[in-house]
């Protein structure tokens, strides 16, 4: 969004990990909508602020928590924000999860086993089930 509004070159790209539908919006039409609709512009600003706070929270998560806390945060993110279910598939490999939470694949595998052993989750390949949401939330918060 920032690159669209500031006329900067895109310095990153995105890849879909699941089948997705992409909607193209003409930049000129989008900018026109912003300039003519104050309510839309305000909602856009609020969205951008929430987005930045989310990035900051993810940054703090990666740098101040242990692997178990970072993994718990990621599992809760997929459960609450992406899949909206306590049972879901994470369409990422263990290496991808490790890269996402700044850990090694071995640490992720060990942390998954630890979280399973204490009864907070059940995992089979890429299928995750949250067994004790409150416990997982505590692990996430304590880091």
What class do helices, strands and sheet pairing give?
A: mainly alpha
Number of domains: 2
Shape: elongated
CATH topology of the largest domain: Arc Repressor Mutant, subunit A
Report the C-alpha radius of gyration, rounded.
Answer: 18 Å
The end-to-end distance, rounded to whole angstroms, is 31 Å
Low-confidence stretches: none
| Number of helical elements | 7
Query: Number of DSSP strands?
Result: 3
Task: Describe the protein in words.
By secondary structure, the chain is mainly alpha-helical. The protein has 2 domains: 56 residues, no CATH class; 78 residues, Winged helix-like DNA-binding domain superfamily/Winged helix DNA-binding domain (Arc Repressor Mutant, subunit A, Orthogonal Bundle), CATH 1.10.10. 62% of the residues lie in helices and 8% in strands. It contains 7 helices and 3 strands; from the N terminus they run H-H-H-H-E-H-H-E-E-H. The protein has a 3-stranded antiparallel beta sheet with strand order 1-3-2. The longest helix is centred in the middle third of the chain and has 27 residues. The model has no long low-confidence stretch (mean pLDDT 91).
Short description:
The protein has helices at residues 2-6, 27-36, 38-64, 67-83, 94-100, 105-117, 133-142; strands at residues 87-89, 121-124, 127-130. It is mostly helical. It has two domains: 2-57, no CATH class; 65-142, Arc Repressor Mutant, subunit A (Orthogonal Bundle), CATH 1.10.10.
């Amino acid at each position: 969004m920032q690159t669209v509004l500031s006329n900067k070159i895109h310095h990153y790209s995105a890849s879909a990990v699941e089948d997705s539908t992409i909607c193209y919006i003409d930049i000129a039409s989008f900018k026109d909508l912003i300039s003519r609709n104050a309510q839309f512009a305000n909602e856009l600003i609020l969205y951008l602020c929430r987005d930045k706070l989310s990035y900051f929270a993810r940054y703090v998560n990666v740098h101040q928590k242990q692997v178990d806390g970072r993994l718990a945060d990621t599992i809760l993110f997929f459960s609450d924000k992406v899949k909206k279910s306590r049972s879901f598939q994470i369409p990422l490999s263990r290496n991808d999860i490790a890269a996402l939470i700044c850990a090694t694949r071995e640490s992720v595998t060990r942390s998954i086993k630890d979280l399973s052993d204490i009864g907070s989750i059940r995992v089979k390949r890429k299928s995750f089930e949250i067994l004790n949401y409150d416990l997982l939330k505590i692990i996430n918060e304590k880091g």
